[in-house]
Design a protein that fits this description.
This protein is α+β, with helices and mostly antiparallel strands. The protein has two domains: 30 residues; 129 residues, 2-Layer Sandwich (Mago nashi protein), CATH 3.30.1560.10. Helices cover 38% and strands 35% of the residues. It contains four helices and six strands, in the order ααββββαββα. It has a six-stranded antiparallel sheet, with helices on both faces. Strand 5 and strand 6 form a beta hairpin. Helix 3 runs antiparallel to helix 4. The chain is globular.
Length: 165
């Protein structure tokens, strides 16, 4: 009889441990990446990202490279560029302030293009990629590897970002 009692206690404890562990795992959130936090920022007006798996650094080492642009409604433009080989990483971060006229032109381009409501289906691309997010008029739209007709608009906005006074 004692043996049966210990078996019941062992089963109850095992069930408790399994259920308790499941609750502990379910309560933990996966930490957001820097990019995810920035994309969730309500002040983010425009985001663009370009990457390629076929890059080399100044020393000729092979790897992948990327550039991310974050434009905020305050006129702050954050540019993040990097190269990664798996064992080495080189990232630079710069921040600029766009003037009122540049911000106005970019906002007009975004609003005139209807990008916040367009459905630009994603293309399957190997060894390169593009991502964009538009936050305008209370609407947020995210694009990944959009077709040429949509990408051309983003290219024009990026050109404005890179060549502002």
């Amino acid at each position: 009889m004692k043996r049966r009692g210990w078996i019941v206690v062992a089963i109850v404890l095992a069930v408790f441990c399994v259920l308790g562990g499941a609750f502990l795992v379910a309560d933990k959130e996966t930490p957001k990446t820097d990019k995810e936090e920035r994309l969730a920022d309500p002040n983010l007006l425009y985001f663009s990202s370009h990457w390629s798996g076929l890059c080399s650094n100044a020393a000729g080492e092979k790897g992948n490279c990327f550039q991310e642009n974050y434009l905020y409604s305050t006129g702050s433009l954050m540019k993040k560029m990097g190269w990664n080989s798996g064992s080495k990483t080189d990232i630079s971060l710069t921040e600029e302030k766009l003037d009122g006229a540049s911000m106005k032109k970019i906002k007009e381009k975004m609003e005139g293009s209807d990008l916040e409501t367009k459905d630009c289906s994603s293309l399957s691309i190997v060894d390169a990629g593009w991502e964009y997010q538009i936050n305008s008029g209370g609407l947020k739209n995210y694009f990944k590897n959009p077709p040429s007709a949509c990408k051309e608009i983003f290219d024009e906005i990026n050109e404005m970002l890179l060549n502002h006074p």
